[in-house]
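Table S5 (text form). Sequence records supplied for joint modeling of the two-component complex.
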Amino acid sequence: MHVHEFLAKELLARRGVSIASGRVAESAEEAEKAARAMAHDQYAVKAQVHAGDRLASGGVRFAGSPAEVGAAAAEMLGRPLVTRQTGPRGEMVRWVYVEEVVTAQTNLYVAVAVDRAVGEIVVLGSRSTVDESEPNAIQERGELHRLPVRIFDSQGTAGFTALARQIAPAEADADKLAELLQLLANSLIELDATLIEINPLAFTADGEFVAIDAKMTIDDNALFRHPDLAAVREADAGLDSDPTELMADRRHINYIALDGDIGVVVNGAGLALATLDSLVDVGGRPANFMDVRTTATSLDIAFAFDLVLANPAVRAVFLNVHGGGMQRCDTIVEGMAVAMRRSGRILPLVVRLAGNNAEFARDRLKTFGISFVEGASIADAAQRVVQVVSKEVA
Amino acid sequence: MAICVGAKTRVICQGMTGHAGTYHTQRMIAYGTKIVAGVTPGKGGRKALDLPLFDTVREAKAATEANASIIFVPPANAGSAMIEAIEAEIPFVVCVTERVPVLDMIRVRQALEGSKTQLVGPNSQGLLAPGIAQLGVMTTVNTRRGSIGVASRSASLTSEVVAQITEAGLGQSTTVGVGGDPVHGIDLKTCLDLFLDDPETQGIVLIGEIGGTEEEEAAELVARLKPQKPIVALVVGRHAPRERRMGHAGAFMAGSAGSAESKIAALKAAGIHIVPNASAVGETMRQALAEWGVSA
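The corresponding structure-token record, covering 690 residues in total, follows.
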């Protein structure tokens, strides 16, 4: 779960990280009011999206008065923002964060993250900020410093101090920076976060380190330990991303909408990726990614098919199931039959059934009176469904 | 012989009395796996499935001389269950549980350092040595004892690939699912190493997918060791939906690794046979064996 800047900052501020003063706003009027209440000389108006590189894309604007804040907010709110991190569709801006502009003497980059390749927590730091236009430049110059952090050990502050010395503007500021780095590492552990990135971290004339931005990702698998954040996810997902993806998630289905015309239903993420590869290789255009998890019941699967059948772009359905020890072919076919009956939409169906209970599932399909074409392998079935679609178009 | 397990493998099941634990323990027993006890805190002294139950792994190990464990404990306590097995010095542990918090897995990884345990999983279908032992939840239809070792990051694809290997007239020495979570126990590289040391294994299949650096690391090992066994690899996700990025830390950690292209290039450069699509694994393996002059 990605956390918006305003919430990430609040979570960090509660733990002692200095942030610039700011308020979140849902409308231009609210933004203007917020600016008036804060009464600063300079404001930053920042689109709240789960992606970086906002400044270069007009997602962060500066304003000299509350009226200008309102105008900037009006231009951003209710529209998608496209940055080099969002992908071409961009992300809808529902909120802006109105913040005082902090004058920095210098800006740093710091992050704490789970490094999956090594299986450890690392602190990353650099004495300059990282820019999307040349993200690897700092690394190439050897200016990115890395500190592994362990969870149980009382490892003391030596590592943090050493890293802080390498990136602090001056020797005298290293202790303060080391404290901040430790605070961020502790916050990551406390919040079950997988990423906390502060880019830029401002160093001010008063000798303070202030978080100007904050990117935070929380481990979805740990949300049971954080009911407050789980509630945010529910609320946020309702507004923010494609609601079908969250609905599907509740039904033990991983679903991602794509823009093709072949509805795809597969059990297992690896097999689902393989199915997309096979389809695209023969010129097919998948309408979605779908992975039915092993815990899904036939009713969950019916819901998954509902999603596919409800997509008007879909011209044919490709069902690829390899029955395993936990998810059998017949369970999936049963769910599909339920969905097809209640939708009444008849689409050409190409199936590929193998593994546990494949034969039984075939019989079930026939008893349900559903007509289908069967492929002998994934590649063969992919070929057939692409043929079906091209006939449909012609 | 198979890797990791053998005729003397004696297995306890942590979380055996739960729904999934009961169902799959029955399946494993029916397959011929030597399950010797269950562990469920609070149920010590009772019996389930005609097996003794213990409160702790340590007690179960002392009473039954178990040398392996399979874990079906729900996500909130799965990390502690793995650490308990590691601290009890169980040599081989499989964790099936899905959705274990990643920081719990980092704690588990710390417990594994310098330990006597080899961990498979979590979020793994487990390990199958056809005809010898099943420590997992995979299907056993279309499997056959043989000489191909399979190490995989994907449970569903493993079933598919195993069926193709059998279809091609070959069989499996052992299949291992390393698990689908970012931080886990043994990786593709370690499996590869074990298969290279196993005299029964004549050919190896690696099943990879986008994300992480395991395939690149396996490629590095192969490039270094130049093993005398054919290895084929399938990497899926060439046309996966693109993930949104959040900031730069991810890129700093993974570097250029992680994409299907990067993995395929690295594996190819190491001399590994690349499978063109998911339907061609059995055939690619057969050709590779012929090319290497190996009869399997």
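Note: Residues 223 and 270 of chain B are 5 Å apart (CA to CA).
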